[in-house]
Specification:
Length: 111
């Protein structure tokens, strides 16, 4: 059973920062790309950022320049540093590897 354990969500004012983390087992982490998705109320889940096994990131246009994805292969962890947060970033954030999803962590940005 593969588990992805997310942490780091919370409530922050607009312009603030949060750092999300997602940890999983070594067997699945090191050989696969990893992604962060988010789902706001009443909206479809959308891709926020991804990072390849070589550490090459990609971002949705809506978060470019504000979010940074990184992976720590030694600790089987992927992080999403979110700066200059906006109310429209409010959503449940999920990490994903292959077809496995984390349980989600709530991010709420107040105006």
């Amino acid at each position: 059973q593969v588990q992805l354990v997310e942490s780091g969500g919370g409530l922050v004012q607009a312009g603030g920062s949060l750092r999300l983390s997602c940890a999983t087992s070594r067997s699945i982490f090191s050989s696969n790309a990893i992604y962060w998705y988010r789902q706001a109320p009443g909206k479809q889940r959308e891709l926020v950022a991804g990072i390849t096994t070589a550490g090459i990131p990609n971002y949705a246009d809506s978060v470019k320049g504000r979010f940074t994805i990184s992976r720590d292969n030694a600790n089987n962890t992927v992080c999403l540093q979110m700066n200059s947060l906006k109310p429209e970033d409010t959503a449940v954030y999920y990490c994903k590897i292959l077809w496995f999803w984390g349980q989600g962590t709530q991010v709420t940005v107040s105006s």
